[in-house]
Amino acid sequence: MQQICVEAGMSPGNLYRYFPSKESIIAGIAERDRAEVGAELASAQHAADFFGTLEELARHHFVERSMDDVGLCTELVSESRRSPTIGRIMRDFDTDVRTRLHALLRAAAERGDISSDVDFDAVVTTIILFADGVWWRRAVHPDFDPATSVPIFMNIMRFMLQPRAARSEGVSR
What we know:
mainly alpha; Tetracycline Repressor, domain 2; elongated
């Protein structure tokens, strides 16, 4: 709460004039972030260069997001373990992101940018795990350079998004 008050430039008492509870503040932050991510992913669905756009999204979320954003997100995830209300907000956010990532992948497959026989659930889970890992690493290790993770992420995505037969051949080598 202190961090939010400092960022908002107001006292806790004044902040509570606008929000009735800590959970409502967190819900507001989650809704703001959900709208931002939703708009980014919706826009990415229509991009001409799927992998270039995916790399831009990775760079934005892994590297360019501020340490304040990273810190707040990790705090919210931690708080979600203690508060059922915040846990629900965070699960809803995750569900929305997963749905939007599925739509992004389906649109790319329909355009022929990626294989249509991809396990979209596995790809979406990998994207989320990778993003979560980068953010936790940034939060815990300030000297971590998240830019080094973008090429690795893109190699994993290119591998996962090729036809299953090509993935099988690549694994057996």
